[in-house]
Amino acid sequence: MDIFIEWMVKRKRNAADYLKIAGCVLGLLVLVYFVLGFMGTPFGGIVFIVAVALVYVLYRVVVGTNIEFEYCFTNGALDVDKIINVQRRKRITELNARKIDIMASSKNPEYRRYIENSEIKKIYACVGPESEGLYFAIYSDDNGRKMLLFNPNDKIKEGFKKFNPQKVFLDD
């Protein structure tokens, strides 16, 4: 019997996201001030075209903070995609449940050891780094060891447990 589970989580905006948005709003206000100042000059048309292009860039920055993660668990393989503003999709990572070193919640004593290890690449595909229900999985691929931080639902956790019961710790 095949197992197929999809789960989506929305990333909470952090302080950096709000700073980007505030910077964009401030930049837009400054831009409007300069555009209005140059409209009567011979450079008015060029300034207007540059202003429109900058408004578009500012829009892309603001909507770029609207991020969701989709976990797709199929027969022991987990694919994690990053979805930006419900328009663009990018594959972040793929891993096989049979080949993980450990999967546990962030309450597990091993979590601190792995999160502080600078040799392991961290992949944040979660609501937030301190969110409730945060789990981590340590695995290796062609580019070295990685640590996936994610918020799986109960079905995905049970799927991992089914395919690798010795390395998955759900009762922390």
Describe the structure.
The protein is an alpha+beta fold. It contains four helices and nine strands, in the order βααββββαβββαβ. The protein has helices at 15-38, 44-63, 110-115, 154-163; strands at 4-10, 67-74, 77-84, 88-96, 102-105, 121-125, 135-141, 144-150, 168-169. A five-stranded mixed beta sheet has the order 6-8-7-5-9. β7 and β8 (144-150) form a beta hairpin. The chain is elongated, with a radius of gyration of 22 Å. The protein starts with a strand and ends with a strand. The model has no long low-confidence stretch (mean pLDDT 89).
Which whole number gives the mean pLDDT? 89
Helix % is 25-40%
What is the H/E string? EHHEEEEHEEEHE
Largest sheet geometry: 5 strands, mixed
- Round the Cα radius of gyration to an integer and report it: 22 Å
Number of strands: 9
Q: Helix- and strand-based class?
A: alpha+beta
Distance between the termini: 29 Å
- Please indicate the percent range of residues in DSSP E strands (runs of 2 or more): 25-35%
Strand order of the largest sheet: 6-8-7-5-9
> Outline, from the CA principal axes?
elongated
| SS summary, helix count | 4
Uncertain residue segments: none
